[in-house]
Design a protein that fits this description.
The chain is built from four helices and four strands. With 145 residues, it is mainly alpha-helical. It folds into two domains: 2-53 and 85-107, no CATH class; 116-145, no CATH class. The longest helix is centred in the N-terminal third of the chain and has 35 residues, at 12-46. It is elongated.
Length: 145
């Protein structure tokens, strides 16, 4: 059983998938940082100095100025600003993956289409189409088609 597991783990597809997951996780962190630290501050500034990561709906009767204050006390909140950041993260990842797949497909060779063998031939006497397997022309009855 251990040998079977080792053979399974060492297959190329499993290793490729593992590398893809690790790189994907690292890429996700980069995109999250890009959104939270680079894109959202200017967007928030354009929208009147709003910090999207601090947008929340307080579900308690007590008022809190920031999300951190509400979370420190344990107040239930709906964190729609963090949700907006996650949507933007997703859209950026989707666009990058779309562009990557599009570029890879341009460089991937197209399958070569093998021409099919002809199914008919032309009778050299009456010029009719005859089955490739025919010995005699069905139209003029010649034998040397």
């Amino acid at each position: 059983m251990l040998k079977d597991f080792k053979d399974f783990i060492m297959k190329g597809n499993v290793l490729d998938m593992a590398v893809g997951v690790i790189i994907g996780a690292a890429f996700g962190k980069i995109v999250s940082s890009l959104v939270a630290d680079v894109l959202m501050p200017p967007i928030g500034l354009l929208m009147g100095g709003v910090d999207f990561s601090n947008l929340f709906i307080n579900l308690s009767a007590t008022s809190y100025a920031t999300l951190k204050e509400a979370q420190a006390v344990g107040v239930p909140t709906i964190n729609y600003g963090i949700f907006l950041n996650s949507i933007i993260n997703f859209l950026i990842v989707a666009v990058v993956i779309f562009i990557l797949i599009r570029q890879v497909s341009k460089f991937t060779p197209k399958p070569v289409e093998v021409p099919k063998a002809p199914m008919t031939k032309q009778c050299r006497f009456c010029l009719s189409e005859v089955s490739i397997k025919a010995i005699r022309c069905a139209h003029c009855t010649s034998e040397n088609i």
